[in-house]
Structure formats: C-alpha cells, structure tokens
Amino acid sequence: MDLSKIGFGENPDKVKAVIEIPYGSNIKYEIEKESGAVVVDRVMHSAMYYPANYGFVNNTLSQDGDPADVLVLTEYPMQAGSVVNCRLVGVLIMEDESGIDEKLLAVPVSKVDPTFDEIQDIDDLPKHTLAKIKNFFETYKMLEKGKWVKVK
After folding, report:
1. Which end of the chain has the lower number of beta carbons within 10 A, N or C?
2. How many domains does the chain divide into?
3. Is residue 7 very low, low, confident or very high in pLDDT (cuts 50, 70, 90)?
C-alpha cells in the first residue's frame, strides 16, 4: 500500500482512517511507511484488547510527530491495512511518558455503516462505551516498565 496516495478525506469532519489494529485485537500492529506492510509491533503485556478499530489519519501531524491517531467505533473488527471513510465525533486528550497524545474518535460514514448516524459528537456516545475506551487507555500499559497513560 502506498500511503502517499491516501488522501485526508472530504472535509474537516470527514476523514480516511487507515486501520492498523482491529477491534478486539491484543496485538499492536503498525503499518510500515516505506513498504506499506502490516508489521507486528508487539503483543500487549496486559490481558486487554483494543476497544475499537485503531489507526491513523494520513497527511496529518500530531504533537508526537506521527499522524493523528483515530479510533473508529464499530460493532466489528476491520482488517489491518484497510481504509475507511469516517466522520469525526470527538477527541480524547491523553498524556503518556512521551507527552500529550490525542486520540480522535470517529464513526463510519453512513454509506459504509448507518448504525452510527445518530452519533454526532462525543456526548452522543453511550457513557459506558466512552468509559471502556478511557479505561483501556488508562490501564493497557500498566505491565510495561516505565510506561503510563493518563486520560485528561
């Protein structure tokens, strides 16, 4: 996959998310920029799994120097390496051992999956869904020496 050919999206609230980690996975994958290969980065040290499809928005830049991270909320896992048209609904601000780290929250556009059409912003998400996502990020690094995360 040539990441340079994947655009940002239609407008500021619609983006193309490149999925690296499927919902329900306990393996952290990363897409290698040069080859486009999906590479196993590591198996999570904790007995947890990703609460949403996890990836990035190409042609963006976060404070950590990487493309913006995005969680795509669905009821099913999406294949690592797939690109999905999404609508942004919010952002979680976190801090970890490396500094500030934002996680965009998105849902598939209606054409992809109309299940989330009523979700217009973060306040429309079920409180339990948001609590699970926050809990995941606050605890998934607990068994990794020298690593931590705080959701703000």
Report:
1. C
2. 1
3. confident
